[in-house]
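User: structure tokens for this one?
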Amino acid sequence: MKKQILTTSISALVAGLAWQAGASAQTLDYTAMSELFGEPVTAGATGAPQRASDVPATMVIITGEDIRRFPERDIPGILRHYAGMDVTRYGFGDGQVNIRGAATGYTPRLLVLVNGREVYLDSYGYTAWATLPVQLDEIQQIEVVKGAQSALYGFNAVSGVVNIITRNPELGNYATAHVDGGTDSYTDLSLVAAYGLGERASVRFSLGSTRADEFAGYPGNTGAAGFGDVEFSRDTLALEGRFALTNKVNLITEFTHSEVNQVESTSIALAAESEYEITSYRAGVEADTDLGFLTVSGFRNEVEVLYSFGLNETSLTAFAIEDLFKVGTRNTIRLSAEYRDGESNSFPAPGNGDFGYETLAASAMWSRKFSDSIELTLAGRYDHVDWSRDGDLDPALYPFSQEDYDVTIEEFSYNAALVWRPEFGGTMRFSTGRGVLAPTMFDIGFGLPVTVGGNTLVISGDPNIEPAIVTNYEIAYDRSLSPAVDLRAALFYHETEKDRGAFGPVPDLFPPAVNAPVFLFGNRGDTATTGAEVTLNGNPEGPWNWSVNYTLQSVEDDLSPFGVNTVRDYEGATPSHLANARVGWTGERFRADVLVNYVSSTDVPMQPAFGAVSRVSVDDVISASFRGEYVINDHLSVALNAQNANFGDGEQTNANTLTESRFWLSLRAGF
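Assistant:
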């Protein structure tokens, strides 16, 4: 198997990591490096291994040990406990996540990766989190990168990135079985295992199955009636193989499959029940060469979603090549190129011709270490996207012809960050980024005639829609206040121009310009968020540990009128204040954690039936959760979990469902 060769010295311990051989995000020994440097390590931001304090972006690293202490059953539940994370739970499995902004239905602003593979859905750019083929027990760490990161990470990374990394099977055999059982018919079974096949091969396997009663619908939303009778279901499978072809060349392959049925909120605030079936394939070759650390990778996502308004079948095939190398001892350079081919069936109405896009992208990153106290990172990316459609639309209904879909989009994105370690202590980051939120399948190719009151209306994508441009500026400061207390703080400004948004209850086009009234996906205006966040983590000697964080957000919209051409209202839907606190105790065989979350009041959109748009006020929400775990022996443990214990049969946190208290018992066996 490939070995990472690390040389350390006094200067390396002070200034960063000094690597003789390359290591990717998938092959890095995170546990060993974190123990060596006394803090989490990542290769996600620049491709080169870095300590968390050296990363040229505001990044939160959530380790596998952190994950195990949360009374949570999915990744959105874990993320809600961190500063800057807006999480709204629209259903048992539909927790939408945004960074520094409202987590609306089908939030399309976040790039989510599992071992480097994009898992957000190309149909609308959102993440159906329950479909991720990952069990919590197999996660090595979750890296949350805040702000526009398109030049460093690629597509969709406009409010940030969530990078999920699973345990490396090359680093040792393991097996973990997990069984949960709780209130409201909740059951969860998972099995994860890794095994070495000789000296040059290893495999990772994971399997999960979850069932639960969905949350009851919000009583004021007639479109959500009966949701409490729906069964949430989730079944996932993942199989990964790693092979050392030579001492310097590795092959990684992966297959995943997931099937999910859940209640969710759509992009136009309609409550819905949807079924997902997703299959993915991934392969990559990594080579440590004289030209640098070369990576050639590819993946294919095949997605079928049965929405309430029709069946959507999409596929995404992507290939990338990357070279990471050093020039001297102070310059790290990464060059990469990417090809993407996305396809969709005629959706939701058949017969309008399949459609899709092809993308060619090139990017470059340069990181320069000027001294032990100053480091600069610059990155740029160019995207060329060509859209097309295979067939003609019915001219009696739709305002666009086949030729109108021959659209080319060209955009440039960038990231720049200066990391400074001043003499007075700590680390300061000054960063800016320009992200590109490209149009999705819904935005361009959607086509559906509907009948309302005996009249024909048309819902259509718009091939003339433009990419939304997101620019952010940030100043961040980290430091240890004492051996037991760490501080993290940031000021940020996040601006979106030409925000992409779905239609409102009033048509965008009327006869006689068109044959029937047409509702369009389109650009709906601008919005900006100004804010601050601060986190304190305490790890004193002894059994206790604690953390508190607070986020302030102020939003200013310049959008189309709410309830006319859009249902977007970021000012109303974004909470001004978010706060979280945790206290933990660890003994020889027992450990316990108590967590409290606060979300300030919001006014959120609701659309029980098409055209009936209104705002619903949601009061301040305080939730309390608890987890207590008893370690029976080296292999067995049992835990009691209480999630939102004070919510009872339901607390209003959105206009879709009532978020309920859930209690469950967990039995974990590890070998």
